[in-house]
Write a structure and sequence with these properties.
Mean pLDDT: 81
Pfam families: RNHCP (PF12647)
Distance between the termini: 53 Å
Number of strands: 6
Bound molecules: zinc ion
Organism: Poriferisphaera corsica
Strand content: 15-25%
Largest sheet: 4 strands, antiparallel
Low-confidence stretches: none
Protein name: RNHCP domain protein
Helix content: 10-25%
Structural class: alpha+beta
């Protein structure tokens, strides 16, 4: 396959059905939708694609790594497997922030008294 053909390769998101180009800014290999952040459960080893369950993978959390990089934790709706995938440069920032804030908007205990002025927040 020529470089140009690969660039034009598209697929449709398993969740929101938007067309997605396979080339992602900042990653070699696009593995989730930049609009809704959903993924699809396929094996990344070449030749193994048919063995995977192909179900939709729901974005459930954002993981931070030691070097300040973010990864989206996906859970497969079909088999329950969890996977962390690096974010891409064109992932929807509001969707990412929504994913991070979701537990706070539905906290199982009151969070009105968070120490927002504590030493954790540096003064400018
Ligand atoms: Zn999508
Ligand atoms: Zn699965």
């Amino acid at each position: 396959m020529s470089r140009k053909q690969r660039k034009n390769k598209q697929f449709y998101c398993i969740h929101c059905r938007q067309p997605i180009s396979a080339d992602a800014y900042g990653t070699k290999h696009r593995n989730h939708c930049p609009f809704c952040l959903w993924s699809k459960h396929v094996d990344e080893l070449p030749g193994d694609r048919n063995c995977a369950c192909q179900s939709a993978m729901r974005p459930i959390a954002v993981e931070t790594r030691g070097d300040g990089e973010w990864a989206i934790v996906h859970r497969c709706e079909g088999c329950g497997e969890m996977k962390a995938n690096r974010i891409a440069g064109d992932d929807d920032e509001l969707q990412l922030l929504g994913l991070i804030l979701r537990p706070l908007t539905a906290a199982p205990f009151p969070i009105d008294h968070l120490p927002m002025r504590g030493p954790m927040i540096p003064y400018k």
